[in-house]
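Input for the complex:
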Amino acid sequence: MNETTANSALVTFAIYLLGVFFLAWLSSRVRQKKEFVGEYFLGGRSLGLWAFALTFAATSSSGGSFMGFPSLIYTHGWVLALWIASYMLVPIVGMGLLGKRVNRLARQSGAVTVPDLIKARFKSETVGMIATLLVLFFMFFYLLAQFKAGSKIMTTLLQDVAIYQTAVNTVAGAIDGVPWVGSAEPDYVLCLLVFAFSVIVYTAFGGFRAVVWTDVMQGIVMGVGVIILLFLTLGQVGGLTKATEQLKEMTPPESGTGVITLGQAQDKDTALPKGAWLRLADEGIARLAEQVNLAKGETHVEAKLLKITTPAEVERIMPTDFGFPVTAAFTAEQAKGYGQGRKGVYVSAPGPHPEKEGGFLNVWLAISFFFFWAFGSAGQPSNMVRLMAFKGTNVLRNAILAVSVYYTVIYLLLVVIFCCARILLPGMEVDSDRIMPELAAKVTGDAGVPWLAGLLLAAPFAAVMSSVDSFLLMVSSAVVRDIYQNRINPTASEKRLKILSYLVTAMVGILAMLAVLNPPQYLQDLIVFATSGLAGCFLMPMLLGLYWPQMTAKGAIAGMLGGLGCHLSLYIAGYAVNGKFEPYKIPVLEFDPFIWALLVSGLLGWLVSLVQAHSSQKAEV
Amino acid sequence: MNEPSSAETSSLRQGRRELWLILLAWLGCAIWVISYCSTNGYDLAPEEVSTLLGFPDWVFWGVVTPWMIANAFTFWFCLRFLKNDEDEEETP
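Predicted:
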């Protein structure tokens, strides 16, 4: 990323944060003189079309949509269209499946949170308490992962800004030797502090309405960013047909190691940056997969390399000019994945994979994802709480339509854009998470509008922030409303609840920030664990409870705990068998644990309710 | 146990109709997408992939087309099939 692009990213980020704080301030003004809890946690149930549609869409699109997803498209090609295909139904399933019934019950019962709603439906304190504990358990994991994701995105996007590097050096000096924090990367710590402070302040201060308003702004930023990126990218590859034709001829690059040789010894220490292009001894071309440091006078060093294997690219790519000759001899790692040396893998399924012999997406996984995206979205409490807040069916109707168009634009176009990115930016496998900022810098720079990169780079910020704020408020509402107000002090004054809400939101945020200051491993896996766990526990009890009057409280408890038990069992079995934090996949049927949890949860909820109804009938007789 | 009001009964009945239609739409799309893509999109040599509007043909017929049809269905569902509850206040 050049200096102009890097600086425009910083300026955009600053303007964006100011906008977010302004909306939080405005929201707190609107909230004054209204009933506090319902306003703070549910925005007074008054969401109109655009607020409801965009808060739903933006909350569902986390940092993964703009960093992880583009990286997957770049690495595996057109098969990602199949991977994401069930987003064609996410609006109608995610909002339509439960929307009207959830909203009706919430209005009738005055419920403010999802556990509140469940408690009202089953008229049982125990069901409400179990729901609260499940929300707290899974949401906190989710929050940790999103805090880390937000900070990582910031470090990626700002790493070339000069003033940012100065601040990183200052932080490095400050945390050096500090227990726990000292072993973390200083750039990560700096970004985490800025990110966490911003999100905690505007969420705690503004409440649900601020979260929704910022989601609207973030949703617009994401949509506009994707459309601009599409036109710039297609213009530079010469159209989609040309890009797909070139992709057909591409073969995946090879990872390996190489001995790098400097043509002449240097009279000072020399660093060859990660990503630099090197001419190989066999006339091929490879990219440095790590930074290489050579001491004064040293001429040979070993490093990880990525060798380009597509002939047209080998001819086109020029080696980096260091001011002195550099060559490398490459030794490939033993190929064990799918697609090595094969043309056509980027335009067909299952897509290349460096490790998995079956490729990126086998048919069972495709089925699993088609189920997961649609029903996983419907089962998220953070989405359910939005269904409690819209004004009426007319708003729901138009919001589903708006989100359908929005998701088509975002997800289908992202696949198109980042398939084209392979043509424009070869060898990005060395750091594929940077493909979004690198592409934004490349296409805006080449189009003569480098300042526009700032707007495009705001999209990932927006995506992750719009998810974090919602989860933060969910955890806080579970503590204030479901535990304190409903159980400890039902007669608490407005003033006390207000102070407690601010404090709890801030405390939860600070706790999450402290927990990820030195981030544990497996955080990305925790996102999947939390998402599928929440949906596995909540979807079937909610669905049965809303559409089947015979569903009982005991049935709901059996459904929630059954889903939890199944989900945890598969993860524990996965850890026991594979030694890693991943679910056990039943041979042949490699479904996500969410599908099994959903089946167990639904079956138990249904059976226990039937048995209970049967026993009650017998007792009456 | 209190008898549900007629508005509640009618809301539940209409809600169930909408639920079944949504589930059927999901199932229809799932069968189309998975069966088409698994038959026509796996393990292809470059010469077996033709393009349609720039998309590989299996992506066009297996993902893009059902996506557009799913959007059309969503529009029909929302505008024609999704009903307001009887006792719901009119909102603009």
